[in-house]
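note to self: dont lose this again. the chain is below, predicted strucutre after it. 338 aa total, dont forget to put it in the shared folder this time
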Amino acid sequence: MLKNKQKTTLIALIVMALIILALVIWRLDARPRTDDAYVWADTITVSPQVSGRIIEQLVRDNQLVQKNDLLFRIDPATYQAVLKQTQAKLAGLNRQIELTQRSVNAQKFSAGSAKASIASAQADAKKTAATLRRLAPLLSQGFASAEEVDQARAANSSAQSHLQSLQLQAKQAEAAVSSVDALVAQRAEIEAQIEIARLNLAYTKVRAPFTGRVASLKTSIGEFVPAGKPVFTLIDTTHWYVIANFRETELKNIQEGTPARVWLMSDTGKTFDGQVDSISYGVLPDDGGSVIAGLPVVKRNINWVHVSQRFPVKIRVTNPDPHLFRVGASAVATVQPR
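---
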C-alpha cells in the first residue's frame, strides 16, 4: 500500500514537472528572450562645411550638448573678406547700371524722336532721288542747267545722310538697352555669389543639430581642418534603442510595435519598456556563400552544428535612463506579444 502511494506520488511529481517544463518552454517560445543584445543610438560625425583653422572650441569629450549649441568656430576672416569683396562688386555694378540706364534713357528719347522723323526723312530721300533722276537726263538735252542738277544731287545726298543718321540713332538705342540687360544679368550672378559668401561665413560656426553627447573628439584649438573632415562623433541622446539578436525561429511572434522589456548589464535591477521598431531582413552569412556589403554580422554560437541564424531586432526604448544608456552597453531583451 505504501509502495503504491509512493509510486503514485512520484508519478504525480513527474507529471507536474513535465507540465511546468512545458509551460516554461511555451512561455519562452511565446515571449522570446535574448541576452545577445546591446544599446544603440543614432550618431553622426560632426565636420565643418568650410575649411579653416579652429579658433574656438566650446566642447570637451563626452560632454552633453543641447540642440543649436555652438560647438566650435572656424576663423571667419577669409570668409568675411570674400563677403565684403562681393558686396563691393555689387555696389560698383549697381552704379554702372544706373549710369548706363541714364544714357539709355537719353538715347531712347533721341531714338523716339528719330523714329518719328524717319518716315519724313525717307519721303525726302525718295523725293530728292526722283528729282535727280528726272533732271540728270535733261542736262545733256539742254533743258536743265548743271547748277540745277548739282543742287538736286546735293539735296539727295543730304536727305540720304539725314535718313542714315536717324536710323543709326534708333539702332544705338536698341544696343544700349541690350547692354543694360547684360549688366542686370551680371547683378543676379553677383547676388548669388554674395549669398554663397554669407552661407560660408555662417558655416564657420558649427552648431549641434540635436541634443547629444560628444564622443571621440579628435582636434583642438589651432588645428586646420578641411571641409568635411570629421572632428568628433555626436550621439543622439533623445532616442535610445536596443539591438537584440533573436533566432529566426522566434521571429514569428515578433513584429513592429510588439511590446518589449530590456535590462542593462550595468544595472539589472532596472527594467525599461520599449517596443519593436523594426526587424532586420538580412545578415552577413558566416558559413560561405555570397557576401553583401553593408549587412550586419551576427556570428553563430556553434559553427560545426547547423543552428538557427539570429537576426537583429531594433527595439525603441520609451523610458531610457540617460545615465545608464551608452552605445554598445550589454543588454537583455524580452518581447511580449499581446
